[in-house]
Design a protein that fits this description.
The protein is of the alpha+beta class and 715 residues long. The protein is built from 26 helices and 23 strands. The structure holds 2-(butylsulfanyl)adenosine.
Length: 715
């Protein structure tokens, strides 16, 4: 449709128009006519890039600026409006993969406000059109997901659709039925409603997004750029069973159509309250009815500040006139209702250039390409480098050095290259060449079967050693203040430390040898290292940097083993039984403990007095202070389950008999070691029946039977 030369021209023109925005605003009729034509040309082009090719070449914000410039001209000079102007329609997102359905009420967009002034203009217009002194607004978050419309007839969920072109959407009922927050039945009849169409958004929480991307990266798939893309992509999957695996959520925020008509809730607030009461996920608790625009502004600012703490991505606030009776008076433009506006938070996308690519060796040897950027402000921070993840990512997006790229930084999500702007290429761009040897130690890189990343497998690779030291000292791990990357590097370069075990043998006199370390700093670091000895088993496990063992996994492991040495010989199947540990994690743990050099580090830590055993928390409960060890097969349930019960009642579940054991519960075919040890130490032994008697008042017998799928197959 567009030749490469034409695309270049249009991008050039876009840049010029964006620079001329203030000129455009004040242009007299003839000049405005020319601008309007140019704006239409570029907007059509960007619509094509966005909707048809799904590879936008400008940010949403820039697009909006162009769109508004055109709309402003057409407002000032209505004679310049043409029937085919992009302002006269909503663009389509239909791909043809699903049947089409007509919405009961058109799904329009929202007008955007970027400044307080623009919110005040909106309020002025509303007051003028309705003749009110002060208007009541309902303000709620603007979710950054994929728009949907749900229809309920006679209390049943009968249809769910995407937005499509606003008039006609795609029927994705089956996919939406897998979303747990879409009730299949809701008692609208309680409100006298026979048929209702409601609007909402399908979302993925930031946490789920992170989990999904981690999984995708592990599987060698390219991560999603942001939760919105992840949600929209998931909704369009052709297989509902696949959709069900993604933890999608639906939030609803607008009633758009009701039969009989007189049952329309009187205010927007009441409409959302009704949805909330009927069990939908809604912004009810996060919305506020504001009197006048100043209260609206204050509420929007408050949310802008808390945006990053919200579990979902939000890109602004939606301000809606609360009283529905005013909707008719206010009406619609072809693009948006006049009774609502979106206050958009600062944009989180920007275009910039990749000036070079460097290769970083990670803590576990993964070599990652990192794009160095011409620094650019995105979402309130300056971004000057961006991970390009792996070779597949670079190839898929065809990223080259010298390329102009669209970069997004959503919330606490790391900066991400959304698209290469191919049209901006001059021919000078160079392909990214992947190194064959490690940039740190020079050993040959390998690509393990099934993995996307190139890895350096030299355990003594300096880059990895330094990062392992830094990780060990990090706040979530051993929290050694003063042990950052620079210090770790200096310790390594001076030959003082080769692994984390060596840290505990350093003397103050060694530390003063480090560049910039006076006696005080050396003493502080020495003390911080000594203090870290008692952080606990979970932190040690995390700090060791075993692949795939994050803090959560480390905590789970630390709950079920007594000492780090228990992991050394623990069979794979036993590891897999620990909640939250799958095959990949279990194998990684086994691999770690099978390496002699790792065991040596653990020995060094132990000799230095680093605590490598479990801290037994004294929880409240009827079994408080009692330590249970089980041996043999139980009739009631697995030992793991019995252990969970002990812990839920405040007791301690341990794996080996020590002098601290209160009871050894003896099942069928008990292990000799535990029995002998218990006898030696004079520990009280009880039967399974005696154990059940002890807990019978606190545990429902049904709970004992409820076993997970892997239960009962081990030991
Ligand atoms: S009301 C006619 N409320 O933003 C007005 N929309 O940019 C109907 N959105 O198409 C929309 N959060 O997909 C409304 N709290 C909210 C929203 C919201 C997100 C989306 C919606 C809409 C788009 C407009």
């Amino acid at each position: 449709m567009y030749t490469p030369e034409r695309e270049r021209e249009l991008i050039e023109l876009t840049r010029k128009l964006l620079k001329d925005l203030s000129k455009i605003r004040n242009a007299p009729l003839e000049e405005a006519r020319e601008y309007a034509e140019k704006l239409r040309e570029v907007i059509r082009y960007h619509d094509y890039k966005y909707y048809i090719q799904t590879s936008p070449v400008i940010s949403d914000y820039e697009y909006d600026q162009l769109f508004r410039a055109l709309r402003d001209i057409e407002r000032r000079y209505p004679e310049l409006v043409t029937p085919d102007s992009p302002t006269q329609r909503v663009a389509s997102e239909i791909t043809g993969a699903f049947p089409e359905v007509s919405h009961y009420a058109p799904m329009l967009s929202l007008d955007n406000a970027y400044t307080e002034e623009e919110l005040k203009d909106f309020d002025r217009r509303v007051r003028e059109l309705t003749g009110s002194e002060e208007v009541e607004y309902s303000v709620e978050p603007k979710y950054d997901g994929a728009g949907i419309a749900l229809v309920y007839r006679d209390d049943l969920f009968v249809r769910g659709a995407t937005r499509g072109d606003g008039e006609v959407g795609e029927d994705i009922t089956n996919n939406l039925k897998t979303v747990r927050t879409v009730p299949l039945r809701a008692e609208f009849s309680r409100f006298g409603i026979k048929l209702i169409e409601i609007r909402g958004e399908v979302l993925i929480s930031r946490e789920e997004f992170r989990r999904m991307n981690e999984e995708r990266m592990e599987e060698g798939l390219t991560p999603f750029a942001n939760p919105r893309n992840a949600a929209a992509g998931s909704l369009r999957l052709q297989n509902p069973a696949e959709v069900a695996k993604r933890r999608l959520e639906a939030v609803v925020y607008q009633v758009s159509y009701v039969e009989p008509e007189d049952r329309f809730p009187r205010t927007h607030y009441e409409a959302v309250e009704m949805l909330h009461l009927l069990g939908f996920k809604t912004p009810f608790k996060d919305m506020k009815v504001c009197k006048g625009i100043d209260e609206v502004i204050a509420y929007c600012r408050e949310w802008e500040e808390r945006r990053d703490r919200y579990p979902y991505e939000i890109d602004g606030m939606v301000v809606k006139v609360n009283d529905r009776r005013l909707y008719d008076t206010l009406g619609f433009t072809s693009h948006h209702p006049r009774w609502a506006i979106a206050f958009k938070f600062k944009a989180r996308q920007a275009t910039t250039k990749i000036v070079s690519v460097v290769f970083q060796v990670g803590r576990v040897g993964t070599v990652t390409p990192v794009g160095k950027l011409e620094p650019v402000r995105v979402g309130g921070v300056t971004v000057s480098s961006v991970s390009l993840f792996n070779e597949d990512f670079v190839r898929e997006k065809d990223i080259r050095i010298g390329d102009t790229v669209l970069v997004e930084r959503a919330g606490d999500v790391i900066p991400y290259v959304v698209e290469v702007i191919k049209e901006a290429r001059t021919g000078e761009e160079r392909p990214i060449e992947f190194p064959e040897s490690c940039p740190s130690c020079g050993s040959k890189l390998v690509k393990l079967p099934g993995e996307v990343a190139w890895r350096c497998i030299n355990i003594s690779c300096p880059a990895q050693v330094v990062l392992r030291l830094k990780h060990w000292g990090s706040r979530e791990a051993m929290d050694i203040r003063g042990l950052g990357e620079a210090t770790a590097k200096a310790l390594y370069n001076k030959g003082l430390v080769k692994d984390v075990g060596d840290l505990y043998y350093l003397k103050v006199l060694d530390l003063v040898k480090l560049p910039g370390f006076a006696e005080k700093a050396a003493l502080n670091l020495y003390n911080a290292i000594q203090e870290s000895k008692t952080r606990g088993l979970d932190r040690v496990l995390y700090g060791l940097g075993i692949r795939y063992v994050g803090l959560t996994t480390a905590k789970k492991i630390a709950q079920v083993v007594d000492s780090i040495w228990d992991l050394k010989d623990m069979p794979l199947e036993r590891l897999i039984r620990i909640e939250g540990i799958g095959d990949i994690v279990a194998r990684s743990i086994k691999e770690f403990f099978s390496r002699e050099e790792n065991l040596k580090v653990i020995e060094k830590l132990e000799r230095a007095g680093v605590k490598l055993t479990k801290t037994k928390l004294e929880k409240e409960g009827p079994l408080k202070g009692k330590v249970f060890v089980f041996t043999g097969t139980l009739k009631c349930c697995s030992r793991e389950k019995a252990g969970q019960i002990v812990e839920s009642l405040g007791g301690v579940f341990a794996n080996s008999v020590t002098s601290k054991t209160t009871y050894l519960v003896v099942g069928q075919d008990p292990g000799r070691t535990k029995l002998t040890r218990a006898k030696q130490l004079g520990i009280k032994m009880i039967t399974e029946e005696e154990f059940l008697e002890m807990i019978k008042d606190f545990v429902n017998p049904e709970d004992l039977k409820r076993e997970g799928p892997r239960e009962g197959t081990l030991f």
